[in-house]
Amino acid sequence: xxxxxxxxxxxxxxxxxxxxxxxxxxxxxxxxxxxxxxxxxxxxxxxxxxxxxxxxxxxxxxxxxxxxxxxxxxxx
Length: 76
Fold this sequence. Notes:
By secondary structure, the protein is mainly alpha-helical. Helices cover 78% and strands 0% of the residues. Helix 2 runs antiparallel to helix 3.
């Protein structure tokens, strides 16, 4: 399972760096936040892997929306 997760992270970084030519450290922040959410939920007694996945996706999705809203510059 760990290899699959790291493989997905590597594919995302490959898309940004390989095709776009952009160096992105944001991937590490979202992966770390998802891991932190799983660790905290495990500490509080949640043992379901599916629920861990939903919590991590929800938290990183909300953070992504907040960062996207703050960094999006549109006018008109």
